[in-house]
């Protein structure tokens, strides 16, 4: 007989770790957490700089590809996703951003009661242990450490100088009342080490909580149903196919790609599509895998002789060795870099209510997600479109649970997105052409000779890809035939099944998605606890 727990959580990413950690605070509630990857508690994860070893390859990374993108000249895009405890929070650039209050108020205006900014702010604060900011917008003492950068990189000040030269406002806190402006990002780090969702919510309790079971290298293959009720999960661990039962609920937290994938493999999706793969329908839900949204991103890149940038060169080697020594000694310096140390939020038109683009200024030259290497040192500036109109999809390529899903972000599927990105390109170039940043540039890598709008459009189609924020593929909604979950995150049409991750977002928030996904986990745990108390 399979072992039974009150809750079985599938996926140890930002949502899954948070909800599992919070539910297991009550010793009378038993929780099992399954993840297909490893524990993610070694130096590769904890050392911020080592993200270069993960994002470009398959270390702790599913390293998915997209289907050919029509809007990008038929190119196949790259979609890194974290594998192992912490999920993408174990491999990301650690930028702590919540998005704009208008993003959450929009969710509420769509009928999702309890999801306005004033509703979700307490959960952001509950999660947070902010070393630098307090007041009505910030929390202290939560599991998730949030700190200012500890690199001490003098280029940060040059970036701020350039922002002033371009006449952009400076912003110290991007998570207060307004976030328009440029500045230095706060990071999910503690004492110069990465604070993933697993380090915040799971690792500290694995040995001490008898009611929390964590299974790694456990690849979920399907949700088990009795009639319309989810009663457990089948998973592969090594060569063994195992089952685990859920007395109360199965909680699906496998992320924007794998949550809809597992729902479809388990018989929840468009019945015609499921039938093509020989999968029996448990519940016809045509919205599963639809509504995928992601931030399209363009990268300006430059070679530079400034000694504070990273790269592949003999000159950079002594700096790297010094940095490693400093990091071992005091957990400060270049090894604490998240690369995207600076950035912010800008409007491409002054009449906009809220910023529509975000910048990430990187302390190394990254080409094709770091998969194409260049000799020498340099820097980058990413610009992404915050609220794209394009909608993509996640679908089944086969009924094999080990085959990756078909991922189609449909970048530039809506022509307005391309035009806004042209404006975003010009806005960002204004910053890159300031005297402060021109002085750092030895060679323009991707944008030389690009001047007319047509030149810019052509370049965008050639080089745009994700900035790693896919959401929306199991969206929350009310009186919406394409909604997959209700505002309590319960899957429509079945019982005992909830989704707790970024796939529930009805619309993409204007910013990095890790903090909002942790918020979703906090709120979900609170809703579940309230239901348990009500009995």
UniProtKB/TrEMBL annotation:
<dbReference type="InterPro" id="IPR000172">
    <property type="entry name" value="GMC_OxRdtase_N"/>
</dbReference>
<dbReference type="GO" id="GO:0016020">
    <property type="term" value="C:membrane"/>
</dbReference>
<keyword id="KW-0274">FAD</keyword>
<protein>
    <submittedName>
        <fullName>Glucose-methanol-choline oxidoreductase</fullName>
    </submittedName>
</protein>
<dbReference type="Pfam" id="PF00732">
    <property type="entry name" value="GMC_oxred_N"/>
</dbReference>
<feature type="domain" description="Glucose-methanol-choline oxidoreductase N-terminal">
    <location>
        <begin position="82"/>
        <end position="105"/>
    </location>
</feature>
<dbReference type="GO" id="GO:0019285">
    <property type="term" value="P:glycine betaine biosynthetic process from choline"/>
</dbReference>
<dbReference type="GO" id="GO:0050660">
    <property type="term" value="F:flavin adenine dinucleotide binding"/>
</dbReference>
<feature type="binding site">
    <location>
        <begin position="92"/>
        <end position="95"/>
    </location>
    <ligand>
        <name>FAD</name>
    </ligand>
</feature>
<comment type="similarity">
    <text>Belongs to the GMC oxidoreductase family.</text>
</comment>
<dbReference type="Pfam" id="PF05199">
    <property type="entry name" value="GMC_oxred_C"/>
</dbReference>
<dbReference type="InterPro" id="IPR012132">
    <property type="entry name" value="GMC_OxRdtase"/>
</dbReference>
<feature type="domain" description="Glucose-methanol-choline oxidoreductase N-terminal">
    <location>
        <begin position="255"/>
        <end position="269"/>
    </location>
</feature>
<dbReference type="InterPro" id="IPR036188">
    <property type="entry name" value="FAD/NAD-bd_sf"/>
</dbReference>
<dbReference type="InterPro" id="IPR007867">
    <property type="entry name" value="GMC_OxRtase_C"/>
</dbReference>
<dbReference type="GO" id="GO:0008812">
    <property type="term" value="F:choline dehydrogenase activity"/>
</dbReference>
<keyword id="KW-0285">Flavoprotein</keyword>
């Amino acid at each position: 007989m399979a072992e039974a727990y009150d809750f079985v959580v599938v996926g140890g990413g930002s949502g899954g770790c948070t909800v599992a950690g919070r539910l297991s605070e009550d010793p009378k509630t038993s929780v099992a957490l399954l993840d297909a990857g490893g524990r993610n508690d070694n130096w590769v994860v904890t050392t911020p700089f080592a993200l270069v070893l993960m994002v470009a390859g398959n270390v702790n990374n599913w390293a998915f590809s997209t289907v050919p993108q029509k809007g990008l000249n038929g190119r196949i895009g790259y979609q890194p996703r974290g594998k192992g405890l912490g999920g993408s929070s174990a491999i990301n650039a650690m930028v702590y951003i919540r998005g704009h209050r208008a993003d959450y108020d929009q969710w509420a205006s769509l009928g999702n009661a309890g999801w306005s900014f004033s509703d979700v702010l307490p959960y952001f604060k509950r999660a947070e242990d902010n070393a630098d900011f307090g007041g009505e917008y910030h929390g202290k003492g939560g599991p998730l450490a949030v700190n200012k950068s500890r690199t001490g990189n003098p280029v940060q000040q040059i970036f701020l100088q350039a922002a002033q030269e371009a006449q952009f406002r400076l912003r110290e806190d991007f998570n207060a009342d307004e976030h328009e402006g440029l500045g230095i990002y706060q990071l999910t780090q503690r004492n110069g080490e990465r604070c993933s969702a697993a380090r915040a919510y799971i690792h500290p309790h694995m040995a001490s909580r008898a009611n929390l079971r964590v299974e790694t290298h456990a690849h979920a293959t399907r949700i088990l149903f009795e009639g319309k009720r989810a009663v457990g999960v089948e998973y592969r661990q090594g060569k063994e196919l195992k089952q685990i039962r859920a007395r109360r609920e199965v909680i699906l937290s496998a992320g924007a790609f794998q949550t809809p994938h597992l729902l479809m493999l388990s018989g929840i999706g468009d019945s015609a599509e499921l039938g093509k793969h020989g999968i029996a329908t448990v519940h016809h839900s045509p919205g599963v895998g639809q509504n995928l949204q992601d931030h399209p991103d363009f990268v300006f890149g430059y070679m530079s002789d400034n000694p504070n940038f990273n790269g592949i060169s003999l000159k950079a080697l002594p700096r790297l060795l010094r940095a490693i020594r400093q990091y071992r000694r005091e957990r400060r310096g270049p090894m604490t870099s998240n690369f995207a140390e600076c950035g912010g939020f800008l409007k491409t038109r002054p009449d906009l209510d809220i910023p529509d683009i975000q910048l990430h200024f990187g302390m190394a030259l990254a080409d094709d997600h770091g998969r194409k290497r260049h000799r020498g040192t340099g820097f980058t500036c990413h610009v992404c479109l915050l609220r794209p109109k394009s909608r993509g999809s996640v679908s089944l390529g086969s009924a094999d649970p080990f085959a990756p899903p078909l991922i189609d972000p449909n970048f530039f599927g809506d022509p307005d997105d391309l035009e806004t990105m042209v404006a975003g390109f010009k806005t960002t170039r204004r910053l890159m052409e300031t005297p402060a940043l021109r002085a750092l540039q030895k060679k323009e890598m991707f944008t030389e000779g690009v001047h007319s709008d047509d030149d810019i459009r052509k370049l965008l189609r050639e080089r745009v890809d994700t900035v790693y924020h896919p959401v929306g593929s199991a969206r929350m909604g009310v009186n919406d035939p394409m909604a997959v979950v209700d505002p309590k995150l319960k899957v429509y049409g079945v019982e005992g099944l909830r989704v707790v991750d970024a796939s529930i977002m009805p619309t993409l928030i204007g910013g990095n998605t890790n903090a909002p996904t942790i918020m979703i986990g906090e709120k979900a745990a609170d809703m579940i606890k309230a239901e348990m108390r009500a009995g």
